[in-house]
């Protein structure tokens, strides 16, 4: 692909110490308007007097080093030149195609290879058959390749699997770092072995073999967060508010970012996945701190608190002399009835099915049976 060339057009030149404010604002507005929301400021150092008479002022200015300041408007990073879309409600929902992870479709897990089934006994060595799928006569050649390449790479073949270092286990799983696509020259790894089996899944016996070593594993694209990386980049709250409810070492590091652990712990606020994993009491304290910082009574946790206050408060006895409320007011009060089962912070949360990870519809009781008169007669065999 051809690299796009950018031409900088000078809007104005001035000294920041003596320029009028209106002129500087006009130049900034013009540059942002004509530059589609982008502005570059070239800062030049003040030239000193020539050291020698033969050195002209032009040469002196040309030898100065410039520093570049980049600015932009909107959700755009001027340093990395990455622009983000405006946030919408569906961006933060794994039930929507806008925010759900494209790999797991918002499920959080995918059907993949379970290493616990591939290596069921970690006390065995590579020579004794720690890799279970390669111990059948059909795949004995792969076991021979493993022994041959492990000797060349210096991987212990007579050491129990659990005593191998993480780097050595990674070599067995992922293959040789010098892999060039030729199966007889380098060790291909357990992952490429199963990728080869996936390409032959149209055969019945291959599908049966794959089913023995498959299970639900965390999604490698989202890390089990069920959301896209763009959704997890948004954070809410300050660092002090986040530290009060969740330790920095326990915060979720999104997949697909180039942050280090130290950079993540220095960021303010929490991402959506952090709040999804927090207990309700900590989540309540976090949103209370947000509301106290904004000085505005919200509708989320504050609404739940009003339920608790309404439930704990004694019912007021209506006065016979008081006039009844208008019909429109009574209808408005009945739109949000207080559940009878709601106690102190027992919010009406729907349970999550452990198999499908979805919320089952209410009610969970089976549908009523038909009357006896409408029952279909059973057919005799």
What does the secondary structure layout of this molecule look like, with pairings?
Blueprint: H1 21-34, E1 38-44, H2 57-62, E2 66-72, E3 76-77, E4 82-83, E5 109-113, H3 115-118, H4 140-153, H5 166-174, H6 189-199, H7 204-211, E6 214-218, H8 229-232, H9 239-245, H10 261-266, H11 272-277, H12 280-294, H13 301-312, H14 327-333
Antiparallel strand pairs: 1-2, 3-4, 5-6
Explain what the structure shows.
By secondary structure, this protein is mainly alpha-helical. Helix content is 32%, strand content 7%. The strands form three sheets. Strands 1-2 form a two-stranded antiparallel sheet. The protein has a two-stranded antiparallel sheet with strand order 3-4. A two-stranded antiparallel ribbon has the order 5-6. About 21% of the residues have low confidence.
Give a nutshell description of this structure.
This protein is mainly alpha-helical and 381 residues long. It has 14 helices and 6 strands.
């Amino acid at each position: 692909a051809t690299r796009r060339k950018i031409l900088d057009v000078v809007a104005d030149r001035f000294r920041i110490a003596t320029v009028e404010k209106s002129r500087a604002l006009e130049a900034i507005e013009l540059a942002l308007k004509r530059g589609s929301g982008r502005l570059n400021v070239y800062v030049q150092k003040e030239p000193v007097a020539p050291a020698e008479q033969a050195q002209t002022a032009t040469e002196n200015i040309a030898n100065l080093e410039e520093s570049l300041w980049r600015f932009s408007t909107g959700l755009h990073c001027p340093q990395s030149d990455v622009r983000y879309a405006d946030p919408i409600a569906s961006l933060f929902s794994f039930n929507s195609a806008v925010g759900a992870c494209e790999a797991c479709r918002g499920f959080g897990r995918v059907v993949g290879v379970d290493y616990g089934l591939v290596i069921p006994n970690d006390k065995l060595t590579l020579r004794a058959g720690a890799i279970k799928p390669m111990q059948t006569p059909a795949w004995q050649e792969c076991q021979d390749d493993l022994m041959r390449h492990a000797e060349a790479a210096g991987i212990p073949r007579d050491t129990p699997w659990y005593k191998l270092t993480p780097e050595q286990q990674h070599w067995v799983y992922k293959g040789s770092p010098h892999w060039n696509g030729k199966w007889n020259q380098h060790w291909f790894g357990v992952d490429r072995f199963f990728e080869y089996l996936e390409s032959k899944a149209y055969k019945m016996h291959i599908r049966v073999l794959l089913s023995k070593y498959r299970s639900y594993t965390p999604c490698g694209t989202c890390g089990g967060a069920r959301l896209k990386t763009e959704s997890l980049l948004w954070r809410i709250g300050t660092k002090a508010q986040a530290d009060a409810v969740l330790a920095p070492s326990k915060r979720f590091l999104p997949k697909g970012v180039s942050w280090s652990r130290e950079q993540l712990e220095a960021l303010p606020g929490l991402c959506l996945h952090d709040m999804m994993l927090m207990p309700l009491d900590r989540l309540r304290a976090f949103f209370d701190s947000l509301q106290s910082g904004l000085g505005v009574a919200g509708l989320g946790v504050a609404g739940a608190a009003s339920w608790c206050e309404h439930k704990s408060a004694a019912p007021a006895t209506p006065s016979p002399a008081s006039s009844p409320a208008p019909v429109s007011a009574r209808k408005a009060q009945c739109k949000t009835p207080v559940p009878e089962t709601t106690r102190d912070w027992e919010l009406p949360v729907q349970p999550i099915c452990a198999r499908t990870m979805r919320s089952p519809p209410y009610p969970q009781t089976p549908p009523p049976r038909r009357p006896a008169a409408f029952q279909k007669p059973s057919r005799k065999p």
